[in-house]
Amino acid sequence: MKRNLSLWLGIILVLAILAVWAVSFVFMPYPPNEMNMSQRFLKPDVSSEHILGTDNFGRDILSRIMYGSRNVLLVGVGSVTLGAAVGIILGASAAMYRRFLSPVIMRLMDGLMAFPGILLALMLVTVIGRGIKGSVIAIGIFMVPVFSRLVYSMVLDAENLLYIKAAKSYGSSNMLIFKRHYIPAMLPRLITQYSSSIGSAVMIETSLSFLGLGIQPPFASWGMMLSESRQFFLVHPYLAVAPGIAIIITILGFNLIGDGLNDRLIHRRSGNE
Q: What percentage of the chain carries pLDDT values higher than 70?
C-alpha cells in the first residue's frame, strides 16, 4: 500500500503539471510577455481576470506559469534523454571492452562525478552558452556519468549469469547480447533512474535560471520568475508562491514516481529472484 501510494501520488502530481503544459498550447489567459504597467502588482483573486495576480511589469502570472512549463519540461526531459542515451552507450562500451575502453571512459566519468551538479552545470553553461539549448547540453553532460556508471555496474553484475555465458559460448556478438539480454535486465533500473533524474534536471534548470544563466528572456522560466520576485518579496510575496509551488510539485512528482517504480519494479524483481 505504501509503495502504491508513493507511485500514484507522484503520477497525480506529474499529470497535473503535464495538464498545465498541454493546455498552454491551446489556451492561455493572456500572452505571457504582454506588459501592462497600469495593472502592476495585482494580488491573486479568483474572481478577477488575473487569478494569480500580475508581476512588476503587469504580466499575468498564470500565463507565465503555463508558458514556463513548456521550457522547464523541455529542458528537464530533453537533458535527461540526452544524458541517458550517451551514458548508456559509454557505460556499455566500457563494460564490454574493459581492456581498452574502461580505463579511459570510467576515469572520465569519475572526473565528472567529482563536481557537484550545479557547479558543473554552471561551468558548462558558461562555456556552451545561455538559453534552452545550452541548458539541455550542460545538464545532459552532468547526467552522462549517472547513467554510464549505472549501466557499467549492471553489465558487470549480469555477465556471470548462465544465459549470458551461454549466449557468449554460441558466439553471439556483444551488440546482440546487449540488445537481447542486457537491456531487458537493466530496463527496470534505467526507468527508475530516468524518472528520478528528471526531477534533478528540473531543479538544476531552475537554479540556473534563478542565477540568470539558464533560460533567457523573452522565454518564461519558473526559476527566472523566482529571481525577479526577490526584490519585491517582502511587499508582494505572492510573486514567488506560484512558481515555487510549480517547482516543488514537478520535482516531488518525478521523485515519487522514481521511488515508487524502484519499489515495484526492482524490489519485486529481486524478491522473485
A: 90
- Residue in 198, 194, 192 with CA at minimum distance from that of residue 253: 198
**Within 13 A of 61's CA, how many CA atoms are on the CB side?**
32
Q: What is the 3-state secondary structure (H, E, C) of 98-121?
A: CCCCHHHHHHHHHHHHCCCHHHHH
pTM for the model: 0.87
54 phi/psi in degrees, rounded to 5:
-130, 160
Query: pLDDT, tens digit, for every residue of 155-183?
Result: 887 777 666 667 666 666 667 777 777 78
What are 204-241's pLDDT values in tens digits? 999 999 988 888 887 888 999 999 898 898 889 999 99
